[in-house]
Amino acid sequence: MAGRLIRKIYKRLGILHVGRRRTRDLTDFVENRKIDLVIDVGANVGQFGESLRAQGYRGKIVSFEPTQAAFQELARKAAADGNWQVHHCGLGAAAGTATLHASQLSVFNSFLELSATAGLHDQRMAIDHTEQVPIHTLDEIAEPLLRESRSLLLKVDTQGYERQVLEGGRQTVARAAGILMELPVIHTYKGDWHLHQAIEYMFELGFVPAQIQAVGYHGADNVSAVDFDCLFRPRGKVDG
Q1: Per-residue pLDDT tens for 54-76?
Q2: Strands across the sheet with 152-156, in order?
Q3: Which phi and psi angles does 180 have, rounded to 5°?
Q4: Which tens digit of pLDDT belongs to each residue from 126-154?
Q5: Are β-strands 127-136 and 90-91 bridged in parallel, bridged antiparallel, or unpaired?
Q6: Which domains does the chain have, with CATH numbers?
Q7: Hey, which bits of the chain come out as E strands?
Q8: 192: closest CA among 160, 230, 159?
Q9: Nearest CA-CA partner of 157 in 48, 33, 70, 52
Q10: Model-level pTM?
Q11: DSSP for residue 3
């Protein structure tokens, strides 16, 4: 009874009462925005898709992974799911082919070369081999998917290649209810962007941060984050 009264007072004052959880997370956003399609760019072996399923999301997932070994594991998991499509390719600003630098630990795979300081973060970033992979654009592949979707979450985790993915997906981006990207504060790849540059870029596209969470910490300074998961939402009336 008291809880209902408190929530009613908060609502009257225009304050969102979060209940027992002190912070909102991606699961809350997915539920609030009624997400029914997740496009997962840079899926690796499907960790993001698995986490969505563990949190109760049952909508369609469409994942993209360019690396051969990671894709095989991803495809195995997707086949057992029933509502999870996978594509063995990379996404970029234009269609073509590109060289992928495969690291000793596959989560660090990137189309960008490592910076001189990358090894200070994690020695497993060292390049094991390279692969030539096909590149498509997000708009090219997403257009038929969006016909059946009412609310899209776009997740892009491509180790410094996020801007190129977005450049090839401007129409898709404009229709997204949310965009989740892993963004760095320390350069571990040549030519990648910093967190503040990404926020400025997204603002120009009409998006602002909704949630920010530290992901990885620096090997040489384990209380300082290397990158953050940044969830963006379209600007709206609440932004003034």
Answers
A1: 999 999 999 999 999 999 999 99
A2: 84-87, 60-64, 37-41, 152-156, 176-184, 221-234, 207-218
A3: -110, 125
A4: 878 889 999 999 999 999 999 989 999 99
A5: parallel
A6: 25-239 (3.40.50.150)
A7: 37-41, 60-64, 84-87, 90-91, 96-103, 127-136, 152-156, 176-184, 207-218, 221-234
A8: 160
A9: 48
A10: 0.86
A11: H
